[in-house]
Design brief:
The chain has about 220 residues and is of the alpha+beta class. It has 7 helices and 8 strands. The N terminus is likely disordered.
């Protein structure tokens, strides 16, 4: 049996030790943004399960700070530049950082994504609400959505917690063709055509884009 003095020392050491940081809790919710992957071209990951631009499984990028989609969610792909205002104002956006080594273990993973929380941003499209629809798609991780890319942190019209640059937020940047399947409702029986809306926006930046969506996700198969 240990002496009383030794037991006392052990008790003090155990009760005064620095606690371990809590583990990141899994969160079945994510913010879904939408991207033109065909127009983008290069991606960080090989298409291990045949990810498509127009049908399931749709290509998707995971936010590099996402707790559940990144192998290193606290570090991401590097810091945001210190001259943030100047970079955004210049209009000369540098290429996306290469982050493959950050999401390598997530490349090829597939998820079932469900429109569960309705729309974010304006919450409507063409003056009609965009509610949760329970529309589902399958996505495959083929790319990273780096928090330190100007296309994320220079989006002044998007709330910070809806960007890939939001720490602690699960973010999926899904191919824009998936939007129609996620938004079939009584008001939009064919779904909302994000592809057409994006083309109109690129031709005239005053045109609106359909809002981002709050989605639920679960591990799936392709």
């Amino acid at each position: 049996m240990l002496p009383i003095t030794t037991l006392a020392i052990l008790f003090i050491a155990l009760t005064t030790a620095t606690p371990s940081p809590p583990l990141l809790k899994r969160n079945s919710q994510a913010v879904a943004t939408f991207n033109d992957f065909k127009g983008q071209g290069a991606v960080d990951c090989p298409k291990l399960n045949g990810a498509s631009f127009t049908s399931s499984p749709f290509g998707a990028a995971s936010g590099d700070l996402s707790p559940d989609f990144s192998t290193n969610p606290t570090a991401g792909c590097g810091p945001v530049p210190s001259n943030l205002a100047q970079v955004c104002a210049s209009g000369k956006l540098p290429p996306a950082p290469t982050c493959y080594n950050k999401v390598g273990t997530h490349c090829g993973k597939c998820y079932t994504v469900t429109n569960s929380g309705g729309a974010l941003n304006s919450g409507q499209w063409l003056s009609k609400p965009v509610p949760a629809t329970q529309g589902k798609v399958t996505v495959e991780i083929i790319d990273t959505c780096p928090h330190n890319h100007p296309m994320n942190y220079c989006k002044t019209n998007v709330p910070d917690n809806q960007k890939c640059s939001a720490p602690g937020t699960n973010a999926l940047d899904i191919d824009q063709h998936a939007y129609k399947l996620l938004t079939v409702t009584k008001d939009f029986p064919q779904g909302i055509d994000y592809v057409a809306a994006y083309a109109a926006y690129m031709a005239d930046k005053t045109k609106p884009l359909p809002p981002n969506l709050m989605v639920s996700w679960a591990t799936g198969s392709c």
